[in-house]
Amino acid sequence: MPHARRPAVVHPEVGELTIHAVLHALADPTRLAIVGSLRENGEQACGTFPVTVAPSTLTHHFRILREAGVIRQREEGKRRWNQLRYDELDSRFPGLLDVVLRSAPPVRQTS
Predict the structure, then answer these.
(1) What residues form DSSP beta bridges with 76?
(2) In-domain check, residue 92
(3) Residue 26 belongs to what domain range?
(4) pLDDT tens digits for range 21-32
(5) Sites in the chain below the pLDDT cut of 70
(6) CATH number, domain with residue 31
(7) CA gap 27, 5 in Å, rounded
(8) Taking Cα atoms as reference points, which of 1, 2, 5 lies closest to residue 75?
(9) Does the residue 3 lie in any domain?
(10) Is the CB of residue 44 less than 8 Å from the CB of residue 38?
(11) How far is the C-alpha of 6 from the C-alpha of 39, rounded, in Å?
């Protein structure tokens, strides 16, 4: 039986980003921790974030962030890498991400 391919990952264009979707994505503490970690550490692979949720729940959080346009994902082998779309978000909603991240609790690193 052939190996099933994952569906292609779609990222919204900058002009398609809505403030409602971005704020919804950033309103969840787990997603905010993911975004804070990406801001501090740069691109990261799934499974390397300072959150303690089940893999299926983490996948859900990445989907919400990706569909809102907050992150960009790329596949490399069997891993998905995540990158914060900081410059694109800042061009669409100047200062928003900085304000939200400044008001968030600090990201705790897990070992």
Answers:
(1) 79
(2) yes
(3) 14-103
(4) 999 999 999 999
(5) 1-9, 106-111
(6) 1.10.10.10
(7) 32
(8) 5
(9) no
(10) yes
(11) 27
Q: What phi and psi, each to the nearest 5 degrees, are found at residue 81?
A: -105, 145
Taking a C-beta distance cutoff of 8 angstroms, is the pair 106, 95 a contact?
no
The reply to whether 2 falls in a domain is no
Count the residues in the chain.
Answer: 111
**86: nearest Cα among 30, 17, 29, 27:** 17
- What's the pTM? 0.84
Q: Are 76 and 43 in contact (CB under 8 A)?
A: no
The gap between the terminal CA atoms of the chain, to the nearest Å, is 38
Give domain status of residue 6, yes or no: no
Token output for 26: 């950033």
> Cβ distance 46 to 79 under 8 Å?
yes
Dig out the tokens for 94 from the structure: 């100047």
